[in-house]
Design goal:
3-stranded antiparallel sheet, single chain, mainly beta, 171 residues
Length: 171
Amino acid sequence: MPAHFTIIGGPSTTTATPGSQFSFSVVVKNDGDASGTVDVRIRDHNNVLVDSQSASVDAGAQQSFDFTETAPSEPGTYQWKIEAYNTDTITVDDYMYFTLEVPYENPYFQIVTYPETVSTQVRKEFTVIVTVHNYGPQGDVEVRIKDHEGNIAGRTTASVFGGTDQDVEVK
C-alpha cells in the first residue's frame, strides 16, 4: 500500500480576536506501507486555501506542523478545514474541520424576543420580559421600555454572560 496520511491531532475549537493572528498545530500520521509526501492545507470559511506546509513522512511515522493564521476581521463563528493531501497519489487522504470563534471584543447585545403588544390598565404597573443575547464578553445591559410618546416607562440593568441569552424583566 502506498503512503496514506491520517490527521491524528488538530484543534477542534480555537478563539481569536478580530483580525489577529492565532496559532495551532496539526499532527499527521503516515499509516501506509511506504514513505510519502503530505501537504497539510488550511482552508478558511470560504474554502480558500490560506496556507500549506509539506513534509516527507516515513511509513508508520508522524509529523507535526505549526501554523499561524489571521482571523477574519468580522466577529462570528467560522468553520475552517484542514486537509492531508497526498502528493504521491494526488488525493486528499483525510480532512477535519475546526471551529474558529472570533468574539466581539466588547459586550454586544441584541434583543431577540419581546412582546409586540402589552395590555394594561391606565396607571397600573406592568411587567415586560425581553430576551437579550450577548455576542461579546460578559457585560451589563440596560433595557428600557418606552411608552407610545417615546418616554421611558421602565428600565432595568442586567449582567449577561458572553454568548448567552438572558430573560430581562422590566417593570
